[in-house]
Specification:
This protein has about 290 residues and is α/β, with parallel strands linked by helices. The protein folds into 2 domains: about 60 residues; about 180 residues, Rossmann fold. A 9-stranded mixed sheet has the order 1-2-6-5-4-3-7-8-9, with helices on both faces. The protein is globular. This is DNA processing protein. Belongs to the DprA/Smf family.
Length: about 290
């Protein structure tokens, strides 16, 4: 099967219902070995339940492939499959890599040294001060900063990176033509035009709660390590940190006031082995050991 035909086939498969990302990855492997495998055999080999098999086949058959390909082209949304040379190598190594990534902006940023920087949506002035202190030095040391374009610390990381003429990558949990939270609309547009915006979800996909833990594994998977600025005990930032740990990546955390609820998560990470960060050198020295 020609690579371009296979790319379109992967696009088609990824748009279907009833299939988990791990099963989708199996389907891609099956298609490589047997390009003419029937949908029924594909579902059986990938281990879909009877219910999901029907859901998958029905959605595959009614999916308007040419229309959707044209829509993404018109919206200037590109896409990478896991088989493309430009697909990020670190992300390919994780347990559950997305088989397709949609993008807008400078794809070449994926070749840089990447550090994920995440934190609480609600945060203290201390968290703001930490971001403003660390980001300029991280930029000076040629690290491209990855975050999730969420309200709070993520938003601030992207903004400060741009202010200091650095490079940043935003990974979002919606289609690239959707804005969540809406207050980040102008920032998202700027990143899509001058930096790099990524999602595993196609155009038109609205925010759903389940999308954001999945988004977090990409944030962690892209990078050499993950820095958590502030986090409550139960926080999406901790999910990102756990994803990094699961993949053997370095986790960094900012220590905080023991009476500050936004520091409970970061202090706990440090107690359980995360690198305690008080200066940028704490990050640089550990990343140099990993590379």
């Amino acid at each position: 099967m020609l690579l371009e035909n296979l790319r379109e086939d992967i696009f088609h498969l990824a748009m279907c219902k009833g299939v988990r990302s791990g099963q989708l990855l199996q389907m891609v492997a099956i298609k490589i070995d047997d390009p003419y495998c029937s949908l029924t055999d594909l579902c059986q080999k990938a281990g879909l339940t009877r219910k999901n098999r029907e859901l998958f086949i029905n959605s595959y058959q009614i999916f308007p492939l040419e229309e959707k390909l044209k829509e993404h082209q018109e919206k200037r949304i590109g896409w990478l499959t896991i088989l493309d040379p430009a697909y990020p190598q670190y992300l390919k190594q994780i347990y559950d890599p997305p088989v397709i990534l949609f993008y807008q902006g400078q794809l070449s940023l994926l070749q840089n040294d990447l550090l994920s920087v995440v934190g609480a949506r609600e945060h203290s002035t201390y968290g703001t001060s930490v971001v403003k202190a660390l980001v300029p030095e991280l930029v000076q040391n040629h690290l491209t900063l990855v975050s999730g374009l969420a309200k709070g610390i993520d938003q601030l990381v992207h903004q400060q990176t741009i202010v200091h003429a650095g490079h940043t990558i935003a990974v979002i949990g919606t289609g690239l033509d959707c804005y969540y939270p809406f207050e980040n609309r102008s920032l998202q547009k700027e990143i899509a035009q001058h930096q790099l915006l990524l999602s595993e979800y196609p155009a038109g996909t609205k925010p759903r709660r389940a999308h954001f833990p999945m988004r977090n594994r990409i944030i962690a998977g892209l990078s050499l390590g993950t820095l958590v600025i502030e986090a409550k005990y139960r926080s999406g930032s901790l999910i990102t940190a756990q994803s990094a740990l699961n993949e053997g990546r370095e986790v960094f955390a900012i220590p905080g006031d023991i009476f500050n609820p936004f520091a409970v998560g970061t202090n706990d990470l440090i107690q359980h082995g995360a690198v305690c960060v008080t200066t940028v050198n704490d990050i640089l020295q550990n990343l140099s050991k990993e590379s």
